[in-house]
Amino acid sequence: MDIEKIKILRNKIAIPLDIAAKLLKDNNGNIEDSEREFHNTNIKEISVLAECDFETARESYNFCKYDKTKAIEKINSKQVIITTRENPTPRNEIGFILWPENRNGENYKTKKRNDAFIPSADFDYVINEFRSVFPLENPWNTNIEEHFDICGTNWFDNKTCRIIINKIRQAKIEELKVTKFKNELIEWLEDKLQYADYIVVYGNL
Q1: CB 197 within 8 A of CB 157
Q2: Secondary structure of residue 139 in the 3-state scheme
Q3: Model pTM score
Q4: Does domain 80-203 have CATH number 3.40.1760?
Q5: Rounded Cα distance, 172 and 64, in Å
Q6: pLDDT tens sequence across 59-116
Q7: pLDDT in tens, 133-187
Q8: How do the domains of the chain map onto residue ranges?
Q9: Rounded to whole angstroms, how far apart are CA atoms 181 and 196?
Q10: From 26's CA, which of 55, 182, 194, 195 has a CA 20 to 30 Å away?
Q11: Phi and psi (nearest 5°) for 165?
Q12: Is 57:71 a contact under the CB 8 Å cutoff?
């Protein structure tokens, strides 16, 4: 066992003595390869635990200065983007933010961030289904909302959301990318409706 190499490796990355020794053994005493294997293993674990691709895990891991726990938390806090785009990226744009609430108007605190963003151009594919269930009673002031508000907040109770899902399923679709988008939206809604009393749809125009 090369004690000097173990010391060098442990100065580079904070790991126990036995792990340092194993890494060096597995990499024929090469310090750089041992360090690279250590980080790649962590990135792979992050991608599994955070359910993301390797590149996303790597970027978060590097940003969090090789802190695996913080990297996972960072990935889990990202807003979900539901879109027809092939490579969606977070950006400031007009669209709709969706999130689940309980009957007291409180957001749910879960391991993963619960809200989703849909660009306005994509929401056009389902806006008629959301509009079709109006008029609806506002749960906080009992006022009757006659129309879907594209510039404000709309509350849909659990039962109404399931009606919307069925309408989205029944709508005729021609483009593959639109089918994929609608399926992702339905999947997101159904996941949240397992526990949510309301789904809020907010237009940020």
Answers
A1: yes
A2: coil
A3: 0.71
A4: yes
A5: 45
A6: 999 999 999 999 988 888 788 899 998 876 656 789 999 999 988 877 776 666 678 9
A7: 999 998 888 889 999 999 999 999 999 999 999 999 998 877 899 999 999 999 9
A8: 3-76, 80-203
A9: 22
A10: 55
A11: -60, -45
A12: yes
